[in-house]
Amino acid sequence: xxxxxxxxxxxxxxxxxxxxxxxxxxxxxxxxxxxxxxxxxxxxxxxxxxxxxxxxxxxxxxxxxxxxxxxxxxxxxxxxxxxxxxxxxxxxxxxxxxxxxxxxxxxxxxxxxxxxxxxxxxxxxxxxxxxxxxxxxxxxxxxxxxxxxxxxxxxxxxxxxxxxxxxxxxxxxxxxxxxxxxxxxxxxxxxxxxxxxxxxxxxxxxxxxxxxxxxxxxxxxxxxxxxxxxxxxxxxxxxxxxxxxxx
Length: 247
Prior knowledge:
The protein is of the alpha+beta class. The protein is 46% helix and 21% strand.
């Protein structure tokens, strides 16, 4: 009975994992193809998840992630308490820069953006709040990679980091040097790592025991001089770290 329950939970989790930033609405056939689950199984799971509010039906034939799932996810201590503490500081940083300000945590081998403040005139970004970017190619992700330990870097290298632009660092030697620089300088500048139009800077956020638990970043047009923003970002990151109990 227990193994059957675990199997059902795993299949339900698989159905939910079929949705991502590029596939926000899916038919049951789409889900079946993306999960390799039989269509009748997908039909049963979708019906139950919809009954519980984890999925919602769209246009009669498609599904999207339900508001209830977002509500539950927002209660996760790693994101909720952190967002609550960091948001006022992020708002101040946005008011002084009028650029995209982001709060990032690590989820596996990806950078998960749990909050973003963007202005109308700020450069348009690839990711979104609640979205994910490669840990090796995003500024916040690289800060977390730098402080994630040698096993995490090994996992990233084993996965084969993708080169997104000419500036994306993908070699082992290049990444090791970059991560050493991040640990030494306590911030990173990623000039056209994700695309050809943005530069992003990021700094670590530390908990009471000094562990890096998140990163704060500012993303702007690659045509804009980012250097004046570095002191403001580092000050904001230190402020959040103090509020989290570090130093």
